[in-house]
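Why does this matter for the project? Reviewers at the last site visit asked to see concrete outputs rather than summary tables. In response, this paragraph embeds two records directly. Each consists of the residue sequence and, immediately after it, the corresponding structure tokens. Nothing has been edited or filtered.
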Amino acid sequence: MAFTARRRQPATVRVASLDVQHSHRRSAVVLGPVTMPSLDELRSRFAAMAAVGPVARIGLQPSTARVRWRFTPHGLDDAVRAADPAADDDPMVLLAALREMPDGGIRVLAGRDHLAIDFSHGLGEIPLLDLLVAVLLGGVDPSEPALWRPYRHAVAPLPAAAIRAIGLRPRRLLPLWRHHRRTKPAATAAPAAGDLGVGPSPATRIARIAGAEADELRRLRDATRPGVSMFAVYTCALHTAFADNGFDVDPVVTLPFDVRRYLPAGWDTLASFSAGLDFTVDPAAGPGGLHSDMGCAVRMARPVANLVVSSVKARAARWARRGADWSGPPRPRMRLLHSSIGSVPRTAWSFSDPAEACILVASDPAGPCGVTVTTATVPGALWMTAEFHESVFDAEQVCAALDSVPERARELLSRTG
């Protein structure tokens, strides 16, 4: 059975308001080394995934203003291209070349043994990219009907998650209300704003923590902070590293939470389904305090509530695009967003040389003063990718901060008390 009957494919598709909201931002992934199929094979597999229909998210044309998106699953060859041999599979060079390609929902660039993909967050996030990579590299057959069963629902994922997490467990409403009351911003005078005198200047920097060093940090965590997640450790280490390298860092950090955990059993979605929650980094409480706050957020279903509120706000605002506000205090305050995509690969593909495995995940910062750091674990290493505006933050200082993260993590884990 295949999903290629053209007469059944709709010209437009109604998407969730969250899709429209997220379509303002883009991400890029560069990974390798992998055994690269031919360009014809890549294009054929990309087209086969698009032919499945809108549920596969390929072929949708994201809009930042409308909930009905065009679905054009044919003529996608231009979205998949071969890299200039001169790029020599340097991830940063591939990333720059990828962003020179014609704009679109998803763009794929194939190097000799590295694959680069740029995509709109309106289409999805890591689960979509993970499946797409598996399809492109031949590990998954998109014509298999069972593959798409978890993504086909009569009810949209967000209402289903909200009903299951909160509607069927109303006792969560009280802690949610208490959290809202406790964290409601106080009415304080806003800092004097002025023109930053700069414009957008996207920049990407990467750092690698070798596997032996990452293992050492995990052993130290097990000995001194058992039960505390390494994500909490690295978040606090990043915050400290940026502050120690001369940046004025906001104590509030944003951490994405996957809301798929609240879906009914057997359900999934390839659309964006993560909630960015704010937490205050308390130097006295350290990673243990942050880990505890994160656990409380999960137990009260705060990620679901956040997505519901975001969806309502987006709909009320009619998805009007707001330009980035390039005004602010004389010394910009860095706002950190830390995301982890976990261990890669997660599905049916593999690195051709695990010892050389590399992954770069560059996600647009939320605003001029934002810095998005994405961590990912590959065989033998942990990679960190920072995306920011170098007209606002010095790139060399960002590099120094990333390089110092292991030492900051070691110091946090070695503290007594």
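We now turn to the second protein, recorded in exactly the same manner.
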Amino acid sequence: MRITNVEAISLIVPIENSIKAPISIPHADELEKIVFKEYRVTLVKIDTDEGITGYGECMVRLAPTATRDIVEYVKPLLIGKDPMDTEYIWELLFGTMMNRGHFQGFYIEAISGIDVALWDIKGKALNVPVYTLLGGNSHPKIWAYASSIRFRGMETMLKTAETFVEKGFTAMKIKIGQGYKTDVMAVEAVRKHVGDDITLMVDANCGYDVKTALKIGRELENYNITWFEEPISPMDYDGYRRLSESLDVPIAAGEAHFLRYGIKDLIEKGKVDIIQPNVCRAGGFTECLKIHGLSSSYDVPYLTHTGSSSAVCIAASLQIAAAFSDCFIFEHMQSDWSKDQRNPLRWDLTPLPIKSFSNGFIELEDKPGIGVEINEDVIKKYRV
């Protein structure tokens, strides 16, 4: 089998009414106009001479045409290659820019989308889900948490939590990062509203300095919080170590890190308790297998991150959640940035390979590859 064509597809859905930042970011009043102005994604479509087509996603938080152009530029390296040779192709792509310091950022996100598409082809060629190729179905039923309860006023936050419970979730994540008093009040209110039987986590999206994170972390211990996610800057390894050594609540991070090298520093220097790489940002399945080997050698659980991705990334992440035995819970995105405008790239681009969801657990369909069936009408409508 040979690769005959590679196509990068950028999709943008403008958010019609401007919104306040639904997560913690610095200078939010200015940056929200750029960061949260649209839903966006870059897909990678790879065709073969046997009629098998694979899809992947390059995780995008800004400028989806940047990863599109990178994929198109390295396309000549891929034409004629055997798509089953994922290790060789990954090293070939990485080697193109390795000696120029591209260990993270747009270039690695572009490689990630290509790699996911190749594994989709491998699964389809062998007529098995990707999770089978990653090691098998460790979790026939995947425990999932609803992500996320966003900054939208106390009444709306409590209503969102209530909706998640009604949908059948037994775990959910709260966005914090608005300040000590506001955050503690929000966590306390949600805990009282949903009761002690619901598993809660919090995510600050790097919103604090170390001392504030320590202060808030001590309060979180009173509300049985399962983990404290990204409390500080992703590169402050000394700060992460201080938090991990000072707090009883587990510290989680890793969505902002790329490749095994960044994760290695986060584990060794930062002493984090949980890592959360994004398969469509951290190098695809090929690299995430190596990241998982690294994390397991330190007994640090590997959980998936989906975040502001499309359904393609979510489908790919489900394959990892099914295969990796230490991935004890899956981030199942339920809320869009805008409370008034749904994200069609998440809800309409492709059905997720989910057979059922009951009592907080996902059962996957036995579909080959990553299990997606792309809606071409969505691509035609939002392609740029």
